[in-house]
Structure to design on (66 residues):
């Protein structure tokens, strides 16, 4: 059985809201993901394939994703 924390890491990106403000609409339009705001953070949730693509896109646009 897969480790839940590892699965969660491959299906979401969590970033402070101020980091994603200028890219929020582009992420939502470009990828099949759900973007949820909570307590000053955005959670980008999607399939592992979409999260990988979104992570690469964010990195190309200067956003450090761990």
């Amino acid at each position: 059985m897969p480790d839940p924390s590892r699965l969660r890491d491959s299906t979401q990106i969590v970033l402070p809201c101020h980091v994603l403000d200028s890219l929020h609409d582009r992420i939502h339009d470009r990828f099949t993901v759900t973007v949820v705001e909570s307590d000053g953070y955005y959670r980008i949730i999607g399939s592992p394939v979409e999260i990988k693509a979104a992570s690469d896109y964010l990195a190309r646009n200067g956003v450090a994703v761990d």
User: Anything to note?
Assistant: The chain is about 50% helix and 25% strand. The helical segments are 4-11, 17-20, 24-30, 48-60. The first helix runs from residue 4 to 11. The CA atoms of residues 35 and 55 lie 13 Å apart.
